[in-house]
């Protein structure tokens, strides 16, 4: 019996074992990353729907008067409040966007436009991009009427 020498069969078995382990790890890595990406997207989709529901169907923190009628003065008030430094983070708390999994916070943008033209509200982060670009994001558009009779679209982005 030889001591301290590698047998050819042992070398082949180690190479085969390492190859199988690397193959399995590669498959796991591919699947887990796609599941993680799907989770992040689905989470953002549910958050954007929840925020838009809160905006158009509730009076506080939203601006609903009686669905589908939206209170125009509340829209203006929220727009003024949103551009005040420090209030953006308050909106993050109100809309439950302060805890992004694995990150610090979500960012959001709310745009309320008259369908005939004209912007009633443009709430977005004070620094950084106004709208998401080249990153995972979710968006939804809701339609309603103001108490002044104008048709409006409410666009909500979360990234």
What layout of secondary structure does this protein have?
Blueprint: H1 8-57, E1 64-66, E2 69-70, H2 72-82, H3 87-94, E3 108-114, E4 119-123, E5 138-146, E6 151-158
Please give a structural write-up.
- The protein has 3 helices and 6 strands, in the order H-E-E-H-H-E-E-E-E.
- The chain is an alpha+beta fold and 159 residues long.
- The protein has one domain.
- A 6-stranded mixed β-sheet has the order 1-2-5-6-3-4.
- The termini are far apart.
Keywords:
159 residues, alpha+beta, 6-stranded mixed sheet, 6 strands, 21% strand
| Strand order in the largest sheet | 1-2-5-6-3-4
For the biggest sheet, the summary is: 6 strands, mixed
Unreliable parts:
none
What portion of residues is helical? 40-55%
Secondary-structure class: alpha+beta
Summary of the model, kept short:
With 159 residues, the chain is of the alpha+beta class. The chain contains three helices and six strands.
């Amino acid at each position: 019996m030889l001591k301290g020498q590698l047998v050819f069969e042992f070398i082949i078995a180690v190479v085969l074992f390492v190859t199988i382990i690397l193959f399995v790890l590669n498959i796991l890595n591919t699947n887990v990353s796609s599941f993680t990406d799907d989770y992040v997207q689905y989470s953002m989709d549910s958050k954007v729907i929840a925020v838009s529901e809160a905006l158009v169907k509730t009076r506080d923190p939203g601006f609903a008067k009686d669905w589908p009628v939206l209170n125009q003065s509340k829209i203006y008030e929220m727009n003024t409040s949103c551009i005040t430094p420090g209030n953006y983070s308050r909106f993050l708390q109100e809309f439950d966007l302060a805890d992004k999994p694995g990150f610090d916070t979500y960012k959001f943008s709310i745009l309320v436009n008259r369908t005939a033209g004209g912007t009633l509200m443009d709430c977005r982060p004070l620094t950084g991009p106004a709208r998401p670009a080249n990153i995972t994001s979710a968006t939804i558009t809701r339609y309603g009427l103001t108490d002044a009779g104008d048709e409006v679209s409410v666009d909500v982005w979360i990234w």
